[in-house]
Each structure stands twice: as C-alpha cells, then as structure tokens.
Amino acid sequence: MSRTLPLSASASVTLDGNGNGTAEVGPSLPGEVWSPGSTGITCGGAIPDTGTPTVFIYAGNGISTSTFIDSTYNVTSASSSMISGKSLYAGQLVFAVWSGGPPNETATLAVNGTRQVPLWAPRSRTR
After folding, report:
1. Which residue of 40, 56, 66, 69 has the lowest C-beta tally within 10 Å?
2. Which pLDDT band holds residue 82 (cuts at 50, 70, 90)?
C-alpha cells in the first residue's frame, strides 16, 4: 500500500571554471516511485557568448543515450515536460548536465510531479 504525494525536489551544483557541472536528484526511500511531470533548470549569470552552452537532462540508472530526456541551449533558465510518463524508483536519478554554462555560478535542477510513498514512510520529508 502507498499514498500519493506531491513531488517538488531540487538539487544544485556550482559550475566549474569552464561552466560544467551535474546536479542530480531522485527517490531514496525503498518502495518510493516518482512520476515526474516536468523538469526545470536555472543558473545565475548570463548565457556565455562563446562556444555552445548546453544542458542535457537524463533520467534513470545513469547518464547515457538510453536515459536521455531532453536538452536546451538556454543554460540559465528552461523547463521541459518531456520527462512526463517516466517512472523512477529508489536508486534512479534525474540528472541535469551543464556544459559551457556561466563559470562558477550555482545551477539548479527542479523536478515536479507526484510520488508514491509506502504507507510506512514518514509523512514529511525534506528534499
């Protein structure tokens, strides 16, 4: 048995001097299942005018072509519903991988949707 709760989780990373970094977040309770409806990314600073800055979103057991969800050139603010319909289980993650973003800025990945939590799990949980 489980109950459905809102999903609003986020993770941040400080991009390195080249504007690269990865933020990741996912279910951690045994038996917990996430049903994300959307992802969003934000990052301080301006979109660099050199190179080709990108953010790639992945969901699953790691970063690979089989777990690719979406990408954007707007490395400072974007959202996507391409993750909708995906189920994530404890141990799986949503990853946002910045490349060529604003150096040394804080970048954040947000995931929203619903989650199924076993009845034995605590009612409130900080993510």
Report:
1. 66
2. very high
